[in-house]
Design goal:
By secondary structure, the protein is mainly β. 10% of the residues lie in helices and 48% in strands. The strands form 2 sheets. It has a 15-stranded mixed β-sheet that branches. A 6-stranded mixed barrel has the order 15-16-21-17-20-19. A hairpin with a 2-residue loop joins β14 and β15. The chain is globular, with a radius of gyration of 20 Å.
Length: 373
Protein backbone atom coordinates (compact mmCIF):
# COMPACT_ATOMS: atom_id res chain seq x y z
CA UNK A 1 0.00 0.00 0.00
CA UNK A 2 1.04 3.62 -0.60
CA UNK A 3 -0.11 6.61 1.43
CA UNK A 4 -0.44 9.91 -0.44
CA UNK A 5 -0.73 13.09 1.65
CA UNK A 6 -3.18 15.56 0.12
CA UNK A 7 -4.43 19.09 0.63
CA UNK A 8 -8.21 19.55 0.74
CA UNK A 9 -9.77 22.88 -0.28
CA UNK A 10 -13.14 21.77 -1.62
CA UNK A 11 -10.93 19.85 -4.06
CA UNK A 12 -8.35 17.16 -3.34
CA UNK A 13 -4.83 18.27 -4.32
CA UNK A 14 -1.95 15.86 -4.90
CA UNK A 15 1.58 17.26 -4.85
CA UNK A 16 3.71 15.80 -7.63
CA UNK A 17 6.63 16.32 -9.97
CA UNK A 18 6.67 16.62 -13.75
CA UNK A 19 10.16 16.65 -15.22
CA UNK A 20 11.58 17.97 -11.93
CA UNK A 21 8.93 20.72 -11.74
CA UNK A 22 6.74 20.56 -8.64
CA UNK A 23 3.02 21.26 -8.72
CA UNK A 24 -0.35 20.70 -7.03
CA UNK A 25 -2.77 18.63 -9.07
CA UNK A 26 -6.52 18.30 -8.49
CA UNK A 27 -7.66 14.69 -8.31
CA UNK A 28 -10.73 14.69 -10.56
CA UNK A 29 -12.82 11.57 -11.14
CA UNK A 30 -14.68 13.52 -13.82
CA UNK A 31 -11.43 13.52 -15.84
CA UNK A 32 -9.36 10.67 -17.22
CA UNK A 33 -5.80 11.80 -17.90
CA UNK A 34 -3.17 14.35 -16.84
CA UNK A 35 -3.74 18.07 -17.55
CA UNK A 36 -1.50 21.11 -17.04
CA UNK A 37 -2.49 24.64 -16.15
CA UNK A 38 -1.21 27.07 -18.79
CA UNK A 39 0.77 29.22 -16.31
CA UNK A 40 2.33 26.13 -14.75
CA UNK A 41 3.33 24.96 -18.22
CA UNK A 42 4.70 28.35 -19.33
CA UNK A 43 6.67 28.94 -16.11
CA UNK A 44 8.01 25.39 -15.98
CA UNK A 45 10.22 25.80 -19.03
CA UNK A 46 9.08 22.43 -20.37
CA UNK A 47 10.52 21.31 -23.67
CA UNK A 48 8.20 19.13 -25.74
CA UNK A 49 8.74 18.86 -29.47
CA UNK A 50 5.23 17.88 -30.55
CA UNK A 51 2.34 20.23 -29.78
CA UNK A 52 -1.13 19.93 -31.31
CA UNK A 53 -4.36 21.89 -30.92
CA UNK A 54 -7.56 20.34 -29.65
CA UNK A 55 -10.97 21.11 -28.17
CA UNK A 56 -11.75 20.12 -24.56
CA UNK A 57 -15.33 20.10 -23.19
CA UNK A 58 -16.38 20.31 -19.55
CA UNK A 59 -18.64 22.22 -17.17
CA UNK A 60 -19.85 25.40 -18.88
CA UNK A 61 -21.43 26.26 -22.20
CA UNK A 62 -18.40 26.29 -24.46
CA UNK A 63 -15.50 24.07 -25.50
CA UNK A 64 -12.01 25.30 -24.65
CA UNK A 65 -9.48 25.41 -27.49
CA UNK A 66 -6.21 24.16 -26.01
CA UNK A 67 -2.69 23.07 -26.79
CA UNK A 68 -2.02 19.35 -26.41
CA UNK A 69 1.41 17.88 -25.73
CA UNK A 70 1.92 14.78 -27.89
CA UNK A 71 4.96 13.42 -26.05
CA UNK A 72 5.58 10.96 -23.23
CA UNK A 73 5.02 12.80 -19.92
CA UNK A 74 5.87 11.36 -16.51
CA UNK A 75 4.07 12.37 -13.29
CA UNK A 76 5.71 11.28 -10.02
CA UNK A 77 4.01 11.51 -6.62
CA UNK A 78 4.45 9.79 -3.25
CA UNK A 79 6.77 7.18 -4.78
CA UNK A 80 4.30 6.36 -7.55
CA UNK A 81 4.61 7.07 -11.25
CA UNK A 82 2.01 7.76 -13.92
CA UNK A 83 2.97 8.04 -17.58
CA UNK A 84 0.92 9.30 -20.48
CA UNK A 85 1.54 10.15 -24.13
CA UNK A 86 -0.55 13.31 -24.27
CA UNK A 87 -1.41 16.19 -21.92
CA UNK A 88 -3.90 19.01 -22.55
CA UNK A 89 -2.95 22.49 -21.34
CA UNK A 90 -5.91 24.33 -19.78
CA UNK A 91 -6.53 27.74 -18.21
CA UNK A 92 -7.14 26.19 -14.79
CA UNK A 93 -6.13 28.99 -12.44
CA UNK A 94 -8.95 31.18 -13.73
CA UNK A 95 -11.36 28.41 -12.61
CA UNK A 96 -9.70 27.05 -9.45
CA UNK A 97 -7.18 29.66 -8.33
CA UNK A 98 -3.41 29.83 -8.02
CA UNK A 99 -3.02 26.63 -6.02
CA UNK A 100 -4.10 24.49 -9.00
CA UNK A 101 -1.23 23.55 -11.33
CA UNK A 102 -3.04 20.74 -13.10
CA UNK A 103 -5.48 17.84 -12.94
CA UNK A 104 -4.91 14.13 -12.50
CA UNK A 105 -7.76 11.83 -13.51
CA UNK A 106 -9.00 8.28 -13.08
CA UNK A 107 -6.46 6.59 -15.37
CA UNK A 108 -3.77 7.23 -12.78
CA UNK A 109 -5.42 4.71 -10.43
CA UNK A 110 -6.74 2.27 -13.01
CA UNK A 111 -7.11 -1.30 -11.65
CA UNK A 112 -6.17 -0.10 -8.16
CA UNK A 113 -8.01 0.25 -4.87
CA UNK A 114 -8.15 3.83 -3.64
CA UNK A 115 -9.04 4.93 -0.11
CA UNK A 116 -9.98 8.59 0.42
CA UNK A 117 -9.89 10.15 3.87
CA UNK A 118 -11.07 13.77 3.86
CA UNK A 119 -10.60 14.65 7.57
CA UNK A 120 -7.08 13.20 7.80
CA UNK A 121 -6.14 14.41 4.31
CA UNK A 122 -4.70 11.33 2.68
CA UNK A 123 -5.25 8.87 -0.13
CA UNK A 124 -4.15 5.27 0.20
CA UNK A 125 -3.53 3.02 -2.80
CA UNK A 126 -3.79 -0.79 -2.69
CA UNK A 127 -3.28 -3.48 -5.30
CA UNK A 128 -5.85 -5.78 -3.68
CA UNK A 129 -8.79 -5.08 -1.41
CA UNK A 130 -8.78 -6.39 2.16
CA UNK A 131 -12.33 -7.64 2.68
CA UNK A 132 -11.86 -7.81 6.45
CA UNK A 133 -11.28 -4.03 6.50
CA UNK A 134 -14.65 -3.40 4.85
CA UNK A 135 -16.88 -4.64 7.67
CA UNK A 136 -17.86 -1.09 8.68
CA UNK A 137 -18.52 0.07 5.11
CA UNK A 138 -21.60 -0.16 2.91
CA UNK A 139 -20.98 -1.22 -0.68
CA UNK A 140 -22.42 0.55 -3.71
CA UNK A 141 -22.22 -1.10 -7.10
CA UNK A 142 -21.46 1.57 -9.69
CA UNK A 143 -21.29 1.65 -13.47
CA UNK A 144 -18.08 2.45 -15.28
CA UNK A 145 -18.60 3.90 -18.74
CA UNK A 146 -15.77 5.43 -20.78
CA UNK A 147 -13.51 5.91 -17.76
CA UNK A 148 -16.21 7.55 -15.62
CA UNK A 149 -17.91 6.15 -12.53
CA UNK A 150 -21.67 6.53 -12.11
CA UNK A 151 -23.21 6.02 -8.68
CA UNK A 152 -26.90 5.29 -7.96
CA UNK A 153 -28.59 7.54 -5.41
CA UNK A 154 -31.87 9.23 -4.56
CA UNK A 155 -32.19 12.99 -4.28
CA UNK A 156 -35.30 14.13 -2.42
CA UNK A 157 -35.94 17.62 -3.75
CA UNK A 158 -38.86 18.23 -1.38
CA UNK A 159 -41.86 16.31 -0.03
CA UNK A 160 -43.31 15.80 -3.52
CA UNK A 161 -40.32 15.22 -5.84
CA UNK A 162 -37.64 12.52 -5.60
CA UNK A 163 -35.08 11.63 -8.26
CA UNK A 164 -33.59 8.13 -8.22
CA UNK A 165 -30.99 7.82 -10.94
CA UNK A 166 -27.28 7.51 -11.64
CA UNK A 167 -24.97 10.45 -10.91
CA UNK A 168 -21.43 11.08 -12.07
CA UNK A 169 -18.96 10.65 -9.20
CA UNK A 170 -17.07 13.92 -9.58
CA UNK A 171 -14.30 14.73 -7.12
CA UNK A 172 -13.50 17.65 -9.40
CA UNK A 173 -16.80 19.25 -8.35
CA UNK A 174 -16.46 21.50 -5.29
CA UNK A 175 -20.22 21.74 -4.66
CA UNK A 176 -22.71 19.15 -3.36
CA UNK A 177 -25.12 17.99 -6.07
CA UNK A 178 -25.66 19.60 -9.48
CA UNK A 179 -28.57 18.37 -11.59
CA UNK A 180 -28.42 18.46 -15.37
CA UNK A 181 -30.66 20.61 -17.55
CA UNK A 182 -32.57 17.61 -19.02
CA UNK A 183 -33.44 16.36 -15.51
CA UNK A 184 -34.54 19.84 -14.42
CA UNK A 185 -36.86 20.01 -17.44
CA UNK A 186 -38.13 16.46 -16.95
CA UNK A 187 -39.20 17.12 -13.37
CA UNK A 188 -40.31 20.71 -14.05
CA UNK A 189 -38.10 22.01 -11.24
CA UNK A 190 -38.57 25.63 -12.27
CA UNK A 191 -42.22 25.39 -11.23
CA UNK A 192 -41.87 22.93 -8.34
CA UNK A 193 -39.10 24.72 -6.40
CA UNK A 194 -40.23 28.03 -4.92
CA UNK A 195 -37.24 29.18 -2.89
CA UNK A 196 -34.35 29.28 -5.31
CA UNK A 197 -31.57 31.65 -6.36
CA UNK A 198 -30.18 32.18 -9.86
CA UNK A 199 -26.40 31.93 -10.10
CA UNK A 200 -24.30 32.88 -13.10
CA UNK A 201 -20.58 32.18 -13.43
CA UNK A 202 -18.19 33.19 -16.15
CA UNK A 203 -15.69 30.54 -15.05
CA UNK A 204 -17.73 27.52 -13.95
CA UNK A 205 -15.41 24.97 -15.52
CA UNK A 206 -13.41 24.21 -18.62
CA UNK A 207 -16.45 25.29 -20.65
CA UNK A 208 -16.58 28.74 -19.09
CA UNK A 209 -19.97 30.41 -18.65
CA UNK A 210 -22.73 28.56 -16.83
CA UNK A 211 -26.12 29.32 -15.26
CA UNK A 212 -27.89 27.37 -12.53
CA UNK A 213 -30.50 27.74 -9.80
CA UNK A 214 -29.58 26.91 -6.22
CA UNK A 215 -32.12 25.50 -3.76
CA UNK A 216 -32.30 23.74 -0.40
CA UNK A 217 -32.69 20.00 -1.05
CA UNK A 218 -34.56 17.95 1.53
CA UNK A 219 -32.16 14.98 1.62
CA UNK A 220 -29.88 12.63 -0.30
CA UNK A 221 -29.93 8.84 0.08
CA UNK A 222 -26.63 7.19 -0.78
CA UNK A 223 -25.45 3.66 0.07
CA UNK A 224 -27.97 3.25 2.89
CA UNK A 225 -27.20 6.63 4.46
CA UNK A 226 -29.14 9.88 4.35
CA UNK A 227 -27.67 13.38 4.22
CA UNK A 228 -30.24 15.91 5.40
CA UNK A 229 -30.87 19.46 4.17
CA UNK A 230 -28.14 20.78 1.94
CA UNK A 231 -27.57 23.23 -0.90
CA UNK A 232 -28.12 21.73 -4.36
CA UNK A 233 -28.52 23.22 -7.81
CA UNK A 234 -30.01 22.51 -11.21
CA UNK A 235 -28.51 23.68 -14.47
CA UNK A 236 -30.05 25.57 -17.39
CA UNK A 237 -27.02 25.08 -19.67
CA UNK A 238 -27.79 23.83 -23.15
CA UNK A 239 -24.19 22.74 -23.75
CA UNK A 240 -21.42 21.25 -21.64
CA UNK A 241 -21.30 18.50 -19.02
CA UNK A 242 -24.41 19.77 -17.21
CA UNK A 243 -26.50 19.40 -20.37
CA UNK A 244 -25.77 15.67 -20.71
CA UNK A 245 -28.51 13.05 -20.81
CA UNK A 246 -26.11 10.26 -19.73
CA UNK A 247 -26.63 10.99 -16.02
CA UNK A 248 -28.94 12.93 -13.72
CA UNK A 249 -26.23 15.13 -12.29
CA UNK A 250 -22.91 15.41 -10.49
CA UNK A 251 -22.21 14.42 -6.90
CA UNK A 252 -19.32 16.46 -5.54
CA UNK A 253 -17.09 16.98 -2.55
CA UNK A 254 -19.50 18.83 -0.28
CA UNK A 255 -21.41 15.53 0.03
CA UNK A 256 -18.50 13.12 -0.36
CA UNK A 257 -16.43 14.87 2.35
CA UNK A 258 -18.87 13.47 4.92
CA UNK A 259 -17.74 9.91 4.19
CA UNK A 260 -14.67 7.74 4.23
CA UNK A 261 -14.51 6.26 0.73
CA UNK A 262 -12.88 3.21 -0.81
CA UNK A 263 -13.10 3.03 -4.60
CA UNK A 264 -12.42 -0.37 -6.16
CA UNK A 265 -11.59 0.38 -9.77
CA UNK A 266 -11.27 -3.35 -10.50
CA UNK A 267 -14.95 -4.08 -9.81
CA UNK A 268 -16.43 -0.54 -10.06
CA UNK A 269 -17.60 -0.72 -6.46
CA UNK A 270 -17.52 2.09 -3.91
CA UNK A 271 -17.50 1.48 -0.17
CA UNK A 272 -18.65 4.28 2.14
CA UNK A 273 -19.00 4.94 5.84
CA UNK A 274 -19.81 8.20 7.65
CA UNK A 275 -16.84 10.08 9.06
CA UNK A 276 -16.69 12.70 11.79
CA UNK A 277 -18.10 15.35 9.42
CA UNK A 278 -21.26 13.39 8.64
CA UNK A 279 -23.65 15.05 11.10
CA UNK A 280 -22.33 18.59 10.73
CA UNK A 281 -25.00 21.06 9.69
CA UNK A 282 -24.59 22.09 6.07
CA UNK A 283 -23.33 25.67 5.67
CA UNK A 284 -25.53 27.51 3.17
CA UNK A 285 -24.26 30.35 0.97
CA UNK A 286 -24.25 33.79 2.60
CA UNK A 287 -21.66 35.65 0.53
CA UNK A 288 -23.66 36.24 -2.64
CA UNK A 289 -20.77 35.74 -5.02
CA UNK A 290 -18.03 33.23 -5.84
CA UNK A 291 -14.33 33.89 -6.24
CA UNK A 292 -10.99 32.23 -6.85
CA UNK A 293 -7.82 33.03 -4.93
CA UNK A 294 -5.29 34.63 -7.30
CA UNK A 295 -3.34 36.35 -4.51
CA UNK A 296 -0.06 34.68 -5.54
CA UNK A 297 -0.10 35.77 -9.18
CA UNK A 298 -2.46 38.78 -9.18
CA UNK A 299 -2.55 39.84 -5.52
CA UNK A 300 -6.33 39.54 -5.41
CA UNK A 301 -9.43 37.41 -5.20
CA UNK A 302 -11.18 37.38 -8.58
CA UNK A 303 -14.99 37.44 -8.62
CA UNK A 304 -16.12 34.55 -10.84
CA UNK A 305 -19.89 34.42 -10.29
CA UNK A 306 -22.84 36.19 -8.70
CA UNK A 307 -26.23 35.30 -7.22
CA UNK A 308 -29.04 37.45 -8.59
CA UNK A 309 -30.45 39.95 -6.11
CA UNK A 310 -27.88 39.10 -3.45
CA UNK A 311 -26.54 42.05 -1.46
CA UNK A 312 -23.30 41.81 -3.44
CA UNK A 313 -25.27 41.99 -6.70
CA UNK A 314 -27.39 44.94 -5.52
CA UNK A 315 -24.26 46.79 -4.36
CA UNK A 316 -22.82 46.63 -7.86
CA UNK A 317 -20.07 44.02 -7.49
CA UNK A 318 -19.20 42.56 -10.90
CA UNK A 319 -17.63 39.41 -12.29
CA UNK A 320 -13.87 39.91 -12.92
CA UNK A 321 -13.62 42.48 -10.11
CA UNK A 322 -10.30 42.10 -8.29
CA UNK A 323 -10.72 42.11 -4.51
CA UNK A 324 -7.39 43.39 -3.20
CA UNK A 325 -8.35 43.83 0.47
CA UNK A 326 -10.90 42.55 3.00
CA UNK A 327 -11.80 44.92 5.85
CA UNK A 328 -8.78 47.05 4.88
CA UNK A 329 -6.45 44.05 5.20
CA UNK A 330 -4.42 43.35 2.06
CA UNK A 331 -5.01 39.94 0.50
CA UNK A 332 -1.25 39.49 0.59
CA UNK A 333 -1.45 39.45 4.41
CA UNK A 334 -4.28 36.91 4.74
CA UNK A 335 -3.20 33.27 4.90
CA UNK A 336 -5.26 31.17 2.50
CA UNK A 337 -5.90 28.65 5.31
CA UNK A 338 -7.69 31.37 7.29
CA UNK A 339 -9.52 32.97 4.37
CA UNK A 340 -12.57 30.70 4.13
CA UNK A 341 -13.10 30.65 7.90
CA UNK A 342 -12.71 34.45 8.04
CA UNK A 343 -15.42 34.91 5.41
CA UNK A 344 -17.78 32.30 6.92
CA UNK A 345 -17.70 33.96 10.36
CA UNK A 346 -18.20 37.52 9.08
CA UNK A 347 -21.54 39.35 9.29
CA UNK A 348 -20.34 41.89 6.74
CA UNK A 349 -17.25 42.49 4.63
CA UNK A 350 -15.68 45.69 3.41
CA UNK A 351 -14.25 44.90 -0.02
CA UNK A 352 -11.58 46.99 -1.70
CA UNK A 353 -11.94 46.28 -5.40
CA UNK A 354 -9.79 47.11 -8.37
CA UNK A 355 -11.82 47.47 -11.56
CA UNK A 356 -9.72 48.47 -14.50
CA UNK A 357 -7.66 51.43 -13.26
CA UNK A 358 -10.18 52.43 -10.56
CA UNK A 359 -10.42 51.37 -6.92
CA UNK A 360 -13.90 50.94 -5.39
CA UNK A 361 -15.23 49.91 -2.00
CA UNK A 362 -18.27 47.73 -1.29
CA UNK A 363 -19.70 46.83 2.09
CA UNK A 364 -21.31 43.43 1.63
CA UNK A 365 -23.85 42.31 4.25
CA UNK A 366 -23.82 38.55 4.67
CA UNK A 367 -27.32 37.06 4.40
CA UNK A 368 -28.74 33.66 3.51
CA UNK A 369 -29.11 33.20 -0.23
CA UNK A 370 -31.74 30.54 0.49
CA UNK A 371 -34.24 30.47 3.33
CA UNK A 372 -33.37 26.87 4.35
CA UNK A 373 -36.60 26.41 6.28
Amino acid sequence: ETIIPVEYRRHIYINGMVNDTEGNFVFDTGADNLYFDSLFYNNGNFRYDSIAVGMVPGAGRDIQKVKIIINPVSFDFAGLNYQTRYVAILSLKTILGDFADGIIGLDCFDNKILEINYPLKYLKVYDQIDTSALCEYNMIQCQRIKDRLYIPLTLNINDSVSISDRFLLDLGCGSAVALTTPVALKYNLEELINDKARYFSKYRGVGGESESWFFAAKSLEIGGYKVERFEAEYSTDKRGSLSSQMYAGLIGNRILERFDLIIDFQTSCIYIKPNRNFSDAFIFSRLGFSFVDRSETLGALIVTGLFDDSHADRCGLQIDDMIVALDNISLLKIDYKCLEEYIEKANSLLLTVKRGESFLTFEIVMSQILKND
